[in-house]
Design brief:
InterPro entries: FBPase_C_dom (IPR044015), FBPase_class-1 (IPR000146), FBPase_N (IPR033391), FBPtase (IPR028343). The protein has 7 helices and 13 strands. It is of the alpha+beta class and 342 residues long. The protein has 2 domains: 191 residues, Fructose-1,6-Bisphosphatase, subunit A, domain 1 (Fructose-1,6-Bisphosphatase, Chain A, domain 1, 2-Layer Sandwich); 135 residues, D-Maltodextrin-Binding Protein, domain 2 (3-Layer(aba) Sandwich). The strands form 2 sheets. The chain has an 8-stranded mixed beta sheet, sandwiched between helices. A 5-stranded mixed beta sheet has the order 10-9-11-13-12, sandwiched between helices. Helix 2 runs antiparallel to helix 3 and helix 4 crosses helix 7. Bound molecules: 1,6-di-O-phosphono-alpha-D-fructofuranose (AFP). 1,6-di-O-phosphono-alpha-D-fructofuranose (AFP) binds next to loops.
Length: 342
């Protein structure tokens, strides 16, 4: 069986009318940038890529988080690849306070790209999985100089979403609204090869992912839901559950796309001003599209993530995503709590 490259897959999708030539070329530019990030990540201690960015005093990004060298390197690779790519009107990044228009000197396209250039930065220096997450939106009609507010479109309007997981192998997982498909980087050929066509998430699961150290800060329905998971077969769920936590959303979501599960980063009281840790535009929305396209579900615990009307580029939301029936169960705990409290 001849291997199918990402390019051939996207040309097939274009022939079926599922993707425009412009969007196909944009996704190939992003994939090439991810290959370059994979090379940088793969150098590890042998390259000047570990540790904090900005020398001894480090540098703090818009999120108020210490930037790693690879955060900055990955961001630069994506910006540079797309500047001359010719398919973008503007892009936005976790690492930049505001969106960035494509310079006038370069050809412009009709799409907006928003990304987390390196998700899971705290895993870099311990050689654990990290990844790139990206989302593609249409540039609003008639907008020639896109600004932050032009990105504020509900996740259901995304035309494509994907991630690249830099793990034991480098995998690109992508959706253009016709299923979720996985590609593995063949380092000898230098191309992504289709290895996971039509990924599907089992509707039920016995595996959950959450950072338990925040347990005392969660709201009551989240505590009740997780307590029932931990009670196992002696508790109301009547079955035992296993737990995993990669501390990089890309790693946890990839496990769920591969074998099912539920990933949870709920609201917590640690910082009441933040309605969760994960960002809507470049973490929750693209992952929600990938998961729904694979038969899963993605909720805040109260509403479908893809329905949320964004209010700011870096806004945060609670996330419950994965096996459809389990996400529905977790959401039921929260809705029943709200009804009782009303
Ligand atoms: P970093 O990029 O700062 O490591 O955060 C990664 C992340 O946004 C997401 O990828 C993980 O699921 C989550 O945060 C891990 O958060 P905790 O470090 O609080 O467990």
């Amino acid at each position: 069986m001849p291997s199918i490259s990402l390019t051939r897959h996207l040309i097939e999708e274009q022939r079926l009318g599922h993707v425009t030539p412009d969007l196909r070329l944009l996704l190939e530019v992003v994939a090439r940038a991810c290959k370059r990030i994979s090379v940088a990540v793969g150098k590890g201690a042998l390259g000047d890529v570990l540790g904090e960015a900005g020398g001894a005093d480090g540098s703090i990004n818009i999120q108020g988080e210490a930037q790693k060298k690879l955060d900055v390197i990955s961001n630069e690779i994506l910006l540079e690849a797309n500047a001359w790519g010719g398919h973008l009107a503007a892009c936005a990044s976790e690492e930049m306070e505001h969106s960035q228009q494509i310079p006038d000197a370069f050809p412009r396209g009709n799409y907006l790209l928003v990304f987390d250039p390196l998700d899971g930065s705290s895993n870099i220096d311990i050689n654990a999985s990290v990844g790139t997450i990206f989302s593609v939106l249409r540039c609003p009609e008639g907008v020639s100089a896109a600004e932050d507010h032009d990105f504020l479109q509900a996740g259901s309007t995304q035309v494509a979403a994907g991630y690249c997981l830099y793990g034991p192998s480098t995998m690109l997982v992508l959706t253009i609204g016709h299923g979720t498909h996985g590609f593995t980087l063949d380092r000898e050929q230098g191309s992504f090869v289709l290895t996971g066509p039509h990924m599907r998430i089992p509707e039920q699961t016995r595996e959950f992912a959450i950072n338990m150290s925040n347990q005392r800060h969660w709201e009551a329905p989240t505590q009740a839901y997780v307590a029932d998971l931990l009670a196992g077969k002696d508790g109301p769920r009547g079955q035992d559950f296993n737990m995993r936590w990669v501390a990089a959303m890309v790693g946890d979501v990839h496990r769920i796309l591969t074998r099912g599960g539920i990933f949870i980063y709920p609201w917590d009281r640690k910082d009441p001003a933040k309605p969760g840790k994960l960002r809507l535009m470049y973490e929750a929305n693209p992952m929600a599209m990938l998961v729904e396209q694979a038969g899963g579900a993605a909720s805040t615990g109260r509403e479908r993530i893809l329905d949320i009307p964004p209010t700011s580029l870096h806004q945060r939301v609670p996330v419950f995503l994965g096996s459809k029936e389990e996400v529905e169960t977790a959401t039921r705990y929260h809705r029943q709590h709200d009804t009782a409290a009303a």
